[in-house]
Design a protein that fits this description.
globular; eight-stranded mixed sheet; 29% helix; alpha+beta; single chain; binds flavin-adenine dinucleotide; 485 residues; 12 helices; D-Amino Acid Oxidase, Chain A, domain 2
């Protein structure tokens, strides 16, 4: 297999004093290109990592098996310390302006029928609120304080923003239709075999590799890393829907609490009552359809039939009937709670869904992946600024894995599991009366609510500098937090 030579990578001789090179690819003893970091997967996690490294003059090659960015309806909500990361990469203003600000969430019962004077159902109105969490209110300038609200923006647009800005740096090369199929590594470098659409197989070499290749990660399998946990019985149908909402309540993002037909609704753009706007409805697909315990589950194809999609949607959408909504995108997902046994092996690291998967209720998955990318960027920046023979580096790499796994195991997994079960664990009135979280929301004591949410906000992000004392930093090398000044 011919080694891949990329035209826009500058070549430098590796430093002779053992210090890692930090900016450019160089040639190994065979004259083959060795890129500082290979990133597998052009999802939002891989692209944020590429951008963060590029802002610190570290070159990357991003290998993506598809021909373009995924447009599937997936993540929509970003909050907490993710806003700090957006600010540090200089994109907070753009992302927050393009997205819709949500100052909190409501939990509602299913919509109820509206009947005419003859008792005929002519539409539905939003279900009663059984709980609400007002995270914050906008200031006098109409803006929310970063970190104290949720930015609602489709994941595909977020990835596009990362890609556009990564490309502008000149430090990132994205190779589309490049699927990683093989991997080997030694103490100096990683080598991947890549199947391409038009150029056959290639071998690409890097000093380090970041597996950001999603839940079905090939790299994870090639490294022999186990993914353990459990899967949920229900499937989750994400639909992007154009509709005219008769009302847009203050807390327009709401969860529907129901033992069977639970879900989440959120605008995907600034919407106004009476005007058409794009909404996301994410709907539980019951493990057994039609409430019949003896019925066989529907196949994925049957669930995606327009009639079945509408049968679920029409339980959730308020407004007159017949409804004029149009489904513009839909995708069906399985739900899991899974974590790898390690996020680091040799010169390879895992980040995002390749390392951990949680159910989507509460929007914790991608946010956690973006914070992995942030921690990994810091780790690699430190690695490139240190001597490559520094014996402490291995410990730093293990720290990346243990810290991020700790966050998932102790914060994200329990929070996301509780978020999901709260939507369907009992009848809505019972949940409202008996669930500790709804009881706390009803009491509305800001101190108590802050204590409940604090573990998430305080522990979600990892500052890798804590594990690399300043005195260890190479002479003349400034180890910042991995952020551009
Ligand atoms: C319905 C739904 C709603 C969600 N809502 C939220 C939310 O509101 N907030 C939130 O934080 N999270 C949410 N999530 C989770 C979020 O979508 C994922 O956590 C996120 O997609 C993970 O990003 P990633 O970059 O790690 O992986 P992915 O987005 O899966 O990207 C992986 C990339 O790697 C590529 N790839 C795979 N294998 C290879 C290979 N061998 N070689 C080269 N390329 C490869 C893929 O083509 C893909 O482009 C939601 C998920 C779902 C399903």
């Amino acid at each position: 297999m011919a080694p891949h030579a990329s035209s826009d990578i500058s070549h430098e001789t590796p430093p002779t004093n053992g210090a890692n090179t930090n900016a450019s690819a160089y040639s190994d003893s065979n004259g083959t290109d060795v890129v500082p970091v290979i990133i597998v997967g052009a999802g939002p996690v891989g692209l944020l990592l590429a951008l963060r490294l590029a802002l610190n003059q570290i070159r990357t090659i991003v290998l993506e098996k598809e021909s373009s960015l995924s447009q599937l309806p997936r993540a929509i909500g970003y909050y907490g310390p993710v806003h700090d990361v957006f600010q540090e990469i200089g994109l907070y203003d753009q992302i927050s302006t393009e997205g819709m600000a949500s100052g909190g969430y409501a939990w509602r019962k299913l919509p109820t029928d509206v009947v005419d004077e003859n008792g005929k159902a002519v539409g539905k109105e939003l279900g009663a609120i059984i709980g609400k969490n007002v995270m914050s209110k906008p200031g006098p300038d109409g803006k929310f304080k970063p970190g104290h609200y949720s930015i609602q923006l489709a994941q595909c647009r977020l990835a596009e923003i990362f890609l556009e800005n990564a490309k502008k740096t000149g430090f990132v090369k994205v190779l589309w239709e490049h699927e990683v199929t093989g991997l080997s590594q030694d103490e100096n470098q990683v080598s991947v075999t890549v199947a391409t659409a038009g150029e056959g197989n290639k071998v690409i070499k890097g000093q380090y590799l970041a597996a950001c290749d999603g839940g079905r990660s090939t790299v994870r399998k090639l490294l022999g890393i186990r993914l353990s946990g459990h899967s949920w019985p229900e499937r989750f149908l994400a639909t992007d829907v154009l509709r005219v909402a008769p009302v847009v309540p203050e807390l327009s993002v709401h969860f529907t609490v129901d033992e069977t037909f639970w879900g989440v609704a959120t605008p995907l753009e600034h919407v106004e009552a009476g005007k058409e706007g794009l909404w996301r409805y994410s709907l539980a697909v019951p493990a057994k359809p039609n409430d019949d315990p003896n019925s066989a589950p529907l196949t994925d194809e049957q669930v995606l039939e327009p009639e079945y999609v509408d049968s679920l949607l029409l339980r959730q959408i308020d407004g007159p009937r017949p409804s004029t909504h149009v489904v513009v995108r839909k995708s069906l997902y399985k739900m899991h709670q899974l974590l790898v046994s390690t996020m680091h092996r040799g010169r390879c690291f895992l980040a995002g869904d390749s390392a951990h998967i949680n159910n989507p209720i509460g929007g914790l998955g991608l946010c956690t992946g973006l914070l992995d990318a942030d921690a990994l960027a810091q780790t690699l920046q430190i690695a490139f600024s240190a001597s490559s023979s520094d014996p402490n580096l291995e410990d730093l790499f293990n720290r990346y894995s243990t810290e991020r796994r700790w966050v998932f195991q102790n914060v994200i997994h329990p929070f996301s599991s509780a978020n999901k079960i709260r939507l369907h664990g009992a009848k809505p009135d019972d949940v409202a009366r008996e669930d500790w979280y709804f009881r706390a929301l009803a009491r509305g004591d800001p101190k108590e609510l802050e204590n409940i949410h604090r573990p998430l906000y305080a522990q979600w992000r990892t500052d890798m500098r804590k594990f690399w004392p300043v005195e260890r930093a190479g002479k003349g090398v400034k180890v910042t937090n991995g952020f551009t000044a």
